[in-house]
Amino acid sequence: MGKLDSKVPSGPLADKWTKHKNEINLVNPANKRNIDVIVVGTGLAGGSAAATLAELGYNVKTFCYQDSPRRAHSIAAQGGINAAKNYQGDGDSAYRLFYDTVKGGDYRSREANVYRLAEESANIIDQCVAQGVPFAREYGGLLDNRSFGGVLVSRTFYAKGQTGQQLLLGCYAAMNRQINRGKIKPYNRHEMMDLVLVDGKARGIIARDLVSGEIERHSAHAVVLATGGYGNVFFLSTNAMGSNVMAAWRAHRRGAYFANPCFTQIHPTCIPVSGDHQSKLTLMSESLRNDGRIWVPKRKEDAENIRQGKLKPTQLKEEDRDYYLERRYPAFGNLVPRDVASRAAKERCDAGFGVNKTGEAVYLDFASAIERYGKEEALTHGMKDADNKTITKLGRQVVENKYGNLFQMYEKIVDENPYETPMMIYPAVHYTMGGLWVDYNLQTTVDGCYCIGEANFSDHGANRLGASALMQGLADGYFVLPYTIGDYLSNDIRTGEISIDSPEFDQAEEAVRERIEKLMSGSGKHSVDHYHKLLGKIMWNKCGMARNAEDLTSAIDDIAALREDFWANVKVTGVADSLNAELEKAGRVADFLELGELFAKDALHRDESCGGHFREEYQTPEGEALRDDENFKYVAAWEFKGEPKNAVLHKENLKYENIELKTRSYK
Q: 233 — phi, psi (to 5°)?
């Protein structure tokens, strides 16, 4: 256990996945009926995996902390899902999707995994259409596409601004079919508390029934973790408030290496922070950057007047606006990758050009799009001399059809009409590219423990391109894991049912009970949220959009001290053996307090800038990320050794045999 063998197949890149599927071991359908698989997390990755594994004949047990898989955070994905269908005839291909993804991740991802993802992308769309997912269609009847950041083609399929929700409903329907057949046994409102290893293999979990508080044992021949990312280590993020790192972190404590924790994505298109009262942030889809233009005033005095309410953005003339992304990156304009757009927004705001009361916001303006679409619609309807009022009305209808629910959401939150005044946006923590290290089969360094979707590190490198999260989750669940897990389970056809009455389950349950008792025994000085907010401030200020050695060093000490104070003085109300939301939060924050320190340690050791990891000491004269391929072209996988400060680094060296390593340029 613990060796970083990526198990990437030999041969040409385009043949690796086909070759691998032809050579790995399979489980005969009759034997699948005798094999149990636990799937923790029932979002798009976990739900698709559970449905597919059950369809194949395995006995599946699913666990989620929500009251229904329909509430998984996957529903929050708005803008779309990538696939190399090339319906637009604009030059897309599996190779181009592969290339864009590796480049977008700043050359810190594994080539073979990314190419497989690109290959399977087209199958995902066919699968979801068959399930009835209502993708938008263009006039000719084909599925419509739009562009996302970091690409020069249109490959993003979408269902208005509700793509994640619609995909999850299709996935949930597939799950329900298997639940009704008795092949999936769902455990909703359950949280995984620990991973159980028997003879070095993952053979089950300890879970807590969040309604009754009962601690339960569940066994299986393999465990699949599909529990999403850890962005809530920053407290304020675009993640649902319940999103956490518990399942992945408990597996890490049992021997699964944690890879690249510092690779966290800051999304440029979020509603700005409005005050200390907030518990989460709201994402405005990247799809809005197809038609919205990002700008700030050219003059600081205009920005100051806007902040003070003396000037409205609509009063500023075109020549007085700085469309800074279009100015700095003419080839990609407003559709540069997220890390590039985020740093550019921060630079403008730090320079004094921010436009909200705190000075931490830029504009996302649809006036040009409304006018452009309005003129097109007028001409289409034979109105050659339409007046401005008619053009605006027609253009607004087009924008509403494409993005209407997003505009409604913005207006409800901000109380401003984005059709009439520009949206205000600012970067916020969104997606995590780091996660449990997995090999080509999606297996962690613990035998029998698999990790899929955002919970693993595998496909995005140091930055994720927009609309690739849904793609990875569904590729892993529908098309990759169901093949690769069979190679491992083929050795278990004679094993029989895994007993929960073993010393290993006894010890794991006892450890869980002791941890809960310790959480409940704090002195009661401060609430769980008190510690989570303090951790979030440390993470954002010292490990956020820009990092340096001094801040990271102090962050490590600050988090260690905060963790010590947490265990001594946290206040967890209620009792352990019943419904207790504070206890749930406390367990998750305890894990964040360990992850946060490892995050800072990982960021400190990586003396380079790449993607979402931006070290101030390593940047070009133009302020762009400066990679060090000679010394840091590897995956940093950390082995748990009791305390984050003692974690041991293991390296998976990355080989680029099909793509030339070069400085990213979107100019």
A: -60, -20
The catalytic residue among 338, 343, 396, 627 is 338
Number of C-beta neighbours around residue 117 at 10 A: 27
Rounded to whole angstroms, how far apart are CA atoms 206 and 200? 16
Q: Which of 379, 448, 447, 72 is nearest to 228 (CA)?
A: 72
How many angstroms separate the first and last alpha carbons of the chain?
45
What does the pLDDT look like over 17-47, one tens digit per residue? 999 999 999 999 999 999 999 999 999 999 9
Phi-psi region of 495 (alpha: psi -120 to 50; beta: other; left: phi over 0): alpha
Residues 6+ apart with CB under 8 A from 268: 338, 341, 342, 344, 345, 425, 426, 427
Q: Is 62 exposed, middle or buried (0-12, 13-18, 19+ CB in 10 A)?
A: buried
**Number of Cβ within a 10 Å radius of residue 524:** 11
Provide the token pair at 409: 């959401």
Main-chain dihedrals φ then ψ at residue 221, nearest 5 degrees: -85, -20
Cβ neighbourhood burial of 340 (10 Å; 0-12, 13-18, 19+): buried
Is 0.90 surpassed by the pTM of this model?
A: yes
Task: Report the alpha-carbon distance of residue 424 to residue 446 in Å, rounded.
Answer: 45
Residue 372 designated active-site: no
Q: Helices 581-605 and 528-543: crossing angle, nearest 10°?
A: 20
